[in-house]
Write a structure and sequence with these properties.
Helix content is 36%, strand content 26%. By secondary structure, it is α+β, with helices and mostly antiparallel strands.
Length: 419
């Protein structure tokens, strides 16, 4: 027997639900309400449905995306009730994909077979263009697509419910003349998602995506010195060398006023990095960082490096997500980085911030896997599930995306002493 959600008193819940598009789900009293803007749901109502410990599923973060929407992205927010009581949410993002623009890096080996492979990929990429409904956050790695109150539904029912929610979202958009071709569920750690078999039965294909890199903060590290003391001499020397090379740069935390003042140069530094990433699905809004700062306050922090001429040459950002510090977007001048190791210094700065802030985990995110492992981060494999909306076309999904997949081979580094 399914455990029902506790009764919650909500004065105006009925009015908020009436403003959404109502869809009855075929599971034990579940009903989903769809909204195309977070402005149609007040913060108090959202808090009754959403978790309190995930900033990426918060009303505040949804407001940020509404005010500084990435290029080509649209949203749909879903409130879920069971017997008229709040039990969960889903956060959907609709995003266009053009392989010729979103996939950049090819096999760099200079040999006949690699050159043929690259040529074929270029031909195929020009033909691959579609729009996906993603249950999850395309801006960050991790499970930020849905949440249900504990003990309300069986795990398998949650999986079926989420896939049905995505299908209903597509139907709603089709009635408005808006086509969506794919469903995308992201990002799951295999060990944390026991419903994979049900997704297989629903004709979803599983894809291994680039792992996320995380530094577990040892509870014995109360300072940078103790973090360094845990390293072998080789990696302590590497730390000192990087700090010495970056000594000519000025490090500064950025206020909201600074973020506005340096918006253009900061955005250009971000694009320099984004355009070099093998797979880049999202292009940020130029005002994204300042919107984060204005809404999240000190939970969002931004820092920059300036050269001797007081020109910004690198910046990075972080988000406080409870026990976890999220290393968010950054940008840098590639030529200056070669001379000053600004990127490596940013990684060390992030570790120091996490240690001093008392966090349990520092999430470095994806990309640059080897250098992140050199500061102590370890990889955690993630998978996404994808299905074409049309059964016939779905047959070709796995082969196509495996063909276009961009891999980043790397050698993991082990900077800490074995004991």
């Amino acid at each position: 027997m399914t455990t029902q959600a506790p009764v919650l008193k909500v004065d105006h819940l009925e009015n908020v639900l009436d403003a959404g598009i109502r869809q009855v789900l075929p599971y034990d009293g579940l009903v989903a309400y769809y909204y195309d803007s977070i402005s149609k749901i007040d913060a108090g109502t959202w808090s009754l449905f959403a978790p309190s410990d995930n900033i990426f599923l918060s009303h505040e973060y949804a407001r940020i995306l509404d005010e500084a929407t990435p290029t080509g992205m649209a949203f749909m927010y879903v409130l879920i009730t069971q017997y008229d009581q709040p039990v969960g949410i889903a956060s959907l993002q609709r995003q266009g994909f053009q392989a010729a623009e979103n996939i950049q890096n090819e096999n760099v080996k200079d040999c006949f077979f690699s050159n043929v492979s690259n040529y074929l990929k270029q031909v195929v990429k020009k033909q691959v263009e579609f729009t996906a409904i993603a249950c999850g956050n395309l801006l960050v790695s991790g499970e930020h697509g849905f949440w249900f109150r504990p003990n309300v539904l069986q795990v398998g029912t949650i999986t079926d419910c989420v896939t049905d929610i995505c299908v209903c979202a597509r139907d709603i958009l089709l009635k408005r003349g808006i086509e969506s071709h794919f469903y995308l569920l992201k990002d799951f750690r295999s060990e944390d998602f026991p419903s994979a078999q049900q997704l297989d039965e629903s004709r979803y294909f599983k894809f291994q995506v680039q792992p996320t890199m995380e530094l577990e903060i040892n509870n014995r590290w109360s300072s940078t010195e103790e973090y360094l003391a845990a390293m072998t001499s080789k990696y302590r020397t590497r730390y000192k060398r990087a700090r010495k090379k970056g000594a000519g740069l000025r490090h500064q935390e950025l206020s909201l006023e600074d973020l506005i003042q340096y918006r253009d140069i900061k955005y250009n530094l971000y694009l320099e990095i984004a355009r070099g990433i093998g797979f880049n699905l999202v292009n940020l809004h130029p005002k994204y960082d300042e919107t984060l700062k204005s809404i999240l306050g000190d939970r969002f922090r931004a820092y920059a490096y300036f050269d001797a001429e007081n020109t910004m040459v690198a910046y990075y950002t972080t988000i406080d997500n409870g026990r976890e510090l999220e290393a968010h977007f950054l940008g840098l001048n590639a030529e200056v980085n070669k001379q000053t190791q600004s990127y490596l210094n940013i990684l060390y700065n992030l570790a120091e911030q996490a240690i001093e802030g008392g966090y349990e985990v520092l999430n470095y995110g994806r990309t640059a896997l080897e250098i992140k492992s050199s500061v102590g981060a370890e990889s955690h494999d993630l998978v996404v599930y994808m299905r074409h909306a049309k059964s016939f076309s779905n047959r070709f999904v796995k082969g196509l995306f495996n063909f276009l997949n961009v891999e980043e081979p790397y050698t993991p580094r082990h900077p800490f002493k074995s004991n």
